[in-house]
Amino acid sequence: MIVDLAPRFLTWDEVDPARHPFDPLSAAQVVDSLGPARGVPRRPEVSAADPAMSDWSHGEGKRWADAMSYALVERYGRWALGWRWALDEGDFDGGPVGSWCCPRDSITTPEETLARVVAALCEWRGWLESLGGWFVAYPLDPALLADQRILWEHAARNLILQVADRTGCGSGWYGHCRQVLTWFLHAGHVTADDARDLVDQAIGGRFHSWTSPDTVLVDDIAERLALSLQPNDTPEPSEATSDHLQSWLAVRQSVPWPAASDGNGEGPVTPSHDGAVEDIRAFDAAVDPARAEGLLAALEVVRADASRGASLNFGLLQSWQQHVLAAPQPPPFRSAVAFAKGGRERYGLNSDTRTRFDACLSESANEGEGELPVALTARAARAYLDVCFFHPFDDGNARAAFLTLVYVLAREGVALDDVQLLRRVSFQAEDPQDPLVLARYVDLHLSQTRRNATASAGHTPS
After folding, report:
1. SS3 letters for the chain?
2. Using CA atoms, how far apart are residues 387 and 393, in angstroms rounded to an integer?
3. pLDDT single digits (tens) 242-271
4. Residue 308 resides in a domain
5. What percent of the chain has a predicted confidence (pLDDT) above 70?
6. pLDDT tens, residue by residue, 267-326
7. Do 219 and 258 have their domain in common?
C-alpha cells in the first residue's frame, strides 16, 4: 500500500531536480492560483491544548493540507509532496523541512499560511537540489565498482551526516536517511529493489529517533553499504509486456477473503454524520469546486441505486462516472492498455476484459453457494480493488473505486462516518497483503462508525 500524499514513498526518479523544472521566483504566484488557496480553513479560537484544536487539525485542517498537496502535485509533479515533511513530529515524522509543521501550528491567516506553503515548497526543493549535487559529485559507475568502493563509502558517510544534520535526528529521522541512501544507490544505477534491501541490511535497525548516530556507527554503515554492492546490482531491462491486471487476478484468487475481515457485527448502521460527504466537501472542494460538485452528484446516484438494489456492473459505474467527470455521455470502457502510478503499473486489455470485470463486480453481492461467506467489508474492499486494477475509465478511476466501495456498503444499509483511510491511498496489484490491509481499514472505519452511532443514540434526549 502507498499513501498517495506521503513523501516517504517518493522515488529518486520522481524527485530528481534534473527531471522536474521549478522556478522558485514564480512559486508564490502558482500557489496563490491553486484551488486550496481560495479556501484556507479558519482555525478554531481555542488554545492549542484544547481537544477541539486537535480534532480540527486532524480533520478539516489535514484535509485542506492534503488538498494543497494534491494541487501542487498536479502543477509540479510528485516531488512537491515533500513540502509538508516537517522536522520532528509534524505532518510526517522526521523530515528536512522547517517552514511547515502541521495544521495546528502552521495554518493561521490565509496570507501567512500560503506564505508558509511557498517557503516549505522552496525549502524542500532546495534540499533535493543539494542532494542532486552530491549525487552528481560522485558519479558512480558499477562497471568500475572495485575501484570506487572507497568513493561509495565516503559518499554514503557524508549523506548520513547531512541527513542527520538537516533533520536534527528527531522523531523518525532515520526513515528519510534510509530514503536518501536508497536514492543515492538508485541514481548510481542500482535497481530500486536492490537499493532498498542493501540500505536496510547496512543500517540493520541501528538508527533511532531523537538520537544522533555516533561516528563509529556511521562509518560502519557506510562501509557495509559499500562492501555489499555487486556489479550485478545494476538494473535489468524492464519487462514491457508485464500485465498488472493479470497479476491482480492471480492475487485476487489467492487471498483468503473469508478471513480478511472480522465481520464487525453485520447489519445496517446509520452514522452520526456523513463521512463521505464531509471528506468530499473538505478535500475535493478545496482542490476544485466543480470536482466536488460532480462527486457529490455521483454519490447521490450511488445511494439511490443502492436503495433499489441495482446490480453492480460496468453500466452502473458508467452512470456514476458521467457525473464525476461532468461528461455529456456515459464514458466508455477504455479502448487501450492503461497505466498508473507513474507508469509503474500496466493494465492489459483483451476481448473479454469488460466481461471479466462485470463477473468480478458481481461477486460483491454473491458470497457463493457451498463456500465460506465473505464479510461485507471484505467484499467492498475487493470491489474497490477490482475497479483500481481493471482501470475501466480513461480518467477518474480512483474516484470510481471509492464510489464502488460506498455502493457495496450502502446496498446493505451501511454508511461510514469517516473515510480518510480509504481515500488518497494506492494499492499495488502484485502485493497479496494489500487486499487484507484495505479490508482492515474498512473494518476500522465501520467499527468506529458503530461505536459513534451507539454513543450518539445514547445521548439523544428522550
Report:
1. CEECCCHHHCCHHHHCCCCCCCCHHHHHHHHHHCHHHHHCCCCCCCCCCCHHHHHHHHHHHHHHHHHHHHHHHHHHCHHHHHHHCECCCCCCCCCCECCCCCHHHHCCCHHHHHHHHHHHHHHHHHHHHHHHHHHHHCCCCHHHHHHHHHHHHHHHHHHHHHHHHHHCCCCCHHHHHHHHHHHHHHHCCCCHHHHHHHHHHHHCCCCCCCCCCCHHHHHHHHHHHHHHCCHHHCCCCCCCCCCHHHHHHHHHHHCCHHHCCCCCCCCCECCCCCHHHHHHHHHHHHHCHHHHHHHHHHHHHHHHHHHCCCCCCHHHHHHHHHHHCCCCCCCCCCCCCEEECCCCEEECCCCCHHHHHHHHHHCCCCCCCCCCCCCHHHHHHHHHHHHHHHCCCCCCHHHHHHHHHHHHHHCCCECCCCCHHHCCEECCCCCCCHHHHHHHHHHHHHHHHHHHHHHHHHCCCC
2. 9
3. 899 999 999 999 999 998 887 666 789 999
4. yes
5. 92
6. 899 999 999 999 999 999 999 999 999 999 999 999 999 999 999 999 999 999 999 999
7. no
Asked if residue 213 and residue 259 are part of one domain, the reply reads no
pLDDT, residue 229, reads 77
Q: Give the model confidence (pLDDT) of 197-218 as tens digits.
A: 999 999 999 999 999 999 999 9
Range of the domain at 433: 244-458
Specify the CATH number for the domain of residue 367. 1.10.3290.10
Cα atoms in the Cβ-side hemisphere of radius 13 Å centred on 432: 7
Among the candidates 77, 96, 126, a domain finishes at: 126
Pair 146, 178 in one domain: yes
pLDDT of 423 strictly over 50 = yes
- Rounded CA separation 167/422 (Å): 30
Q: How confident is the prediction for the chain on average, in pLDDT?
A: 91
Residue 330: is its pLDDT beyond 70? yes
Find the range with the poorest average confidence among 48-52, 146-150, 436-440: 146-150
Give the domain-ending residue among 126, 151, 171: 126
Q: Does residue 131 fall inside a structural domain?
A: no
Are 302 and 451 in the same domain? yes
Per-residue confidence band for 344, with pLDDT thresholds at 50, 70 and 90: confident
